[in-house]
Request: fold
Amino acid sequence: MSVVQQQMAAPLFFSDSAVAKVRELIEEEENPNLKLRVFVTGGGCSGFQYGFSFDDSQDEEDTVVERDGASLLVDPMSYQYLVGATIEYLEGLQGSQFVVQNPNASSTCGCGSSFSI
Reply:
C-alpha cells in the first residue's frame, strides 16, 4: 500500500471482529483476492443506507484499509460519509452481520443500516 493510501485510509477503522470474519470468509471461499467493500447508497428510512459486498477486484480510486491479511475497500463517494467510522462484525440474537459505527450520522433507523447526516 502506498503512503498516500495509508494517509487517506487512517480515519476509517476496521475492527478485530470484522478482520477475523473477512479472513474466515476468504479461507472458506479459497480466494485470497477477496476484499470487503463497504458503500453508501441513497435510500433507506433515514436517507442513506450502508451496503457490504465481497469483491475480488479493486478500482484505482478506492481507499484501501489493510489489516492483518484482510482488506476493506471504499469508493470515493462513500468515503466522505464514512470518515471516522468503524466497520464491525457483530453476532447477536438478530443474526450476524457487518455493521458501521458512524460518528457522522445524526440519526439512524431501528435496523441500524440506514442513517442521515
Observations:
- Residues 65 and 90 are 19 Å apart (CA to CA).
- The beta strands are 13-14, 35-42, 48-55, 63-67, 70-74, 86-92, 95-101, 107-108, 114-116.
